[in-house]
Amino acid sequence: TVQRSGIDVLRSRGGIHLFQDNGLKRVNFFDGQLLTAADLRAEQAYFLGRGRRHNRFAHGWGVLQGLGVSVAGDTVEVRPGAAIDCAGNEIHLPACVALAIPPDARRLVVLIRYVERAVDPLPVLGTDIAADESSVQFSRIEEGCEVELSSNAVADPHPALKPGSPGCGLPHPLAITLLRRSRSGWRKALLARRRA
What we know:
This protein is mostly beta strands.
C-alpha cells in the first residue's frame, strides 16, 4: 500500500486499486450486528454522497428548468424551477417567490441555495419526557431552498467553471440572475443557465 495525497494505492496482480481517504463508504450489514444511529446516518450519507457525485459529474451545476426572474415595480419574482449547486445538491423551488427590492439598490444578484432543517420532534425513549428539551430529538431532515437578493454577491464565483460542468464541489448559493438598474428600469442578465 502506498499513500499519495489522501489516496491509498494498492497494487495487485491485475492492476492498481485506488481508495480515497474520506471517500464514500457503504455500511456492510450482517446478522447479529449492533446498529446505532451512527450506522444509519452513515447509510444515508453514502446514498446522499453518491447522488450528489452523480449530479455533479453526470449533469453539472446550474439551472435545470424554470427559475425565471421578472421585475414589477419594487418587487422581484422568481418562478418555480430546479437547479443543481456545485456540491451536487438538488434545489427545487416549488412556488413563486416575491422579494422586495431595497429602495437604494443599483445592482442585485438573485441567489438560490440548498438548505436543510430538522423537523418532526419525538421524545427520546428511556428519558423522562417532561425533563427538558434534551429528551426530544428531531426525527426528520427536511430539504428546501432559500431565495434572496444580494447587492454584494459575486455574479459568477468561478468564471472558468461553466454551467453543466462539475463545478467547484462546494455548497454555495447559485446566482441565477444579475439585475442592474438603468434609467429605463431593471436590466437582467441570466446566469447559471445550462446549454441544451
